[in-house]
Amino acid sequence: VVMGIGVFSVIILIFISAHMAKKSLEPVRRAYERQKEFIADASHELRTPLTIIKTTAELLGMKEQETIMENSKWLENISSETENMSKLIQNLLTLAQADNNQIPVFMGDVDLSKLVRETGEKFELIARDKDIEFESIISDNVHLTGDKDKLNQLLVILLDNGIKYTPEKGKISISLMHTTDKAIITVKDTGMGISEGDIDKIFERFYRVDKARSRDQGGAGLGLSIANWIVREHKGKISVESEPDKGSSFIVELPKKRK
Ligand code: ADP
Fold this sequence. Notes:
By secondary structure, this protein is α+β, with helices and mostly antiparallel strands.
């Protein structure tokens, strides 16, 4: 009987340790799966512009009689796809380095009022070009401890999306408010909006509500993942309120002092 109990205990022990080993390896397995998915998605995204460039170049090669001017449309195609590809590679590098904590974050005093005003002014011109109304409401003298370039990149991602997903005659606004301990930036648009089912997913890498539409605008679904990372680096919070066909608001809350 004693031997039986001994053997039984050993079996139970083996079973428990195998189960624990499996459980402790779970995060590693998940990270590996995520990495595999990232590489597969990235390769797929890079293949599309490459295929377009290759096909266009082949078409150009077949048109012996035409002058460069006559072929300008095709050359523009190559140029814009190359531009898309280089943006995509830059974004992929940013996320890969962010995963490995390889991006230096330079925390210093940032005049957020000035940054929001200056970046807003640049986008006001782009909005006007697309016949979109632009408004900015900026509290004066809002400072925080942060990385100026990264915060600028965050504003660019949100404003760029606002313009991409808002049709002509729409409106975009950026506002900066503050409380004693945090700054609140809101980028609001009257664009196509995001459905409830998609809202939780838009911060995932490569997620796009409408793949074809977003690609036409040069997007690969990485902007909001980068925005999310920048907000996290600043110990802040990003949230979305949206209604299909009415518009979206992206709200960023950033602590003024880094804890
Ligand atoms: P992309 O480069 O494709 O725009 P993002 O990561 O910035 O990638 O955004 C992910 C997806 O979220 C977009 O493809 C789009 O479907 C949706 N989205 C982001 N911003 C907005 C917005 N302001 N209005 C409507 N949809 C948006």
